[in-house]
Write a structure and sequence with these properties.
This protein is of the alpha+beta class. Among the domains are: about 140 residues, Creatine Kinase, Chain A, domain 2 (2-Layer Sandwich), CATH 3.30.590.10; about 90 residues, no CATH class. The protein is about 50% helix and about 15% strand. It has 13 helices and 10 strands. Helix 4 crosses helix 12, helix 9 packs across helix 10 and helix 12 packs across helix 13. It starts with a helix and ends with a helix. Its EC number is 2.7.14.1. InterPro entries: Arg_Kinase, ATP-guanido_PTrfase, ATP-guanido_PTrfase_AS, ATP-guanido_PTrfase_cat, Gln_synth/guanido_kin_cat_dom. Keywords: Allosteric enzyme, ATP-binding, Kinase, Nucleotide-binding, Transferase.
Length: about 350
Amino acid sequence: MSLERFINQAVSSWMSNEGPHSEIVLSSRIRLARNLADYKFPSLLQPEKAAELTAKINESMQEKYDLELLTMEKLSTLQKRVLVEKHLISPYLSDASSYGAVLLSDTEDISIMINEEDHIRIQCLSPGLQLKETLKKASEIDDVIEAKLKYAFDEQRGYLTSCPTNVGTGLRASVMIHLPGLVLTQQMNRIIPAINQLGFVVRGIYGEGSEALGNIFQISNQLTLGKSEEDIVEDLLSIVHQIINHEESARESLSNMSSIHLEDKVFRSYGVLTNSRIIESKEAAQCLSDVRLGIDMGYIQNVSRCILNELMILTQPGFLQQYAGGTLRPEERDIRRAALIRERLKLEENC
């Protein structure tokens, strides 16, 4: 398969499109956790009940949405890993859910996980900073399911979930944000505790327990009880806008104080990406971050900023092995990663 065809098949809409504040915010995500009233939570669910529940949820959606049902037991380990790398399913659904499934839209902006930690996890993704629009989309899906199936709901506590931290709205709102300016000016260590004190959390690119590779951070709410969905989103938007302002100021400061050094850093990283024959994931992520910064600062003219979104996903172990058509050892993945990046950047320049 050619690289161009592979990218067209592999890249989700949120990776290849731009939205508001796309120079800093890569994507917005809304996730709603729900359970059905007449079923035990997934950890206690019997196989026949899990299958029955999956069928009901699938049926409730198909009248209005054209979604493809994928069951975890029918997917290979590599296929599930790719879905995790694309942020379409959680690691928990991939590894720990015996009877899990997912409903996916063609554009992969809608992902409904079934029998994960909760019966239903509605997830919607959008490019750029579009939390309100993404919440509206997720709420519409939520209404469609609730019109057909009875949720586990308490008048005082709200939506009941397996994990107490999700009780209430069941909402996780998050943005994936690129902050090289704040990292280079050593401000992130001060900003992260301030965000935590406001009831929000800063994580790596793949959520809890993951590393902030390539200066990409995920900011999301911690509290789901005591606030409406709209209030949670408004509060997160307020924080994100402040972070955007700080990042823009940090970039301007870097440009004013040491423009030639910043430009040198960008083009050295670009040189590594366009010429390396072997590259580890951490180095690749850092170089991609530098190049993305160079594109945003106007140093690099012939490359789209969406390239970071794409290559951060395409150079993950699952995707590399999918492109290679089989299992690869770590060093083979590093060789394949370098080749894919070179080919992708050459394809971009030719376009």
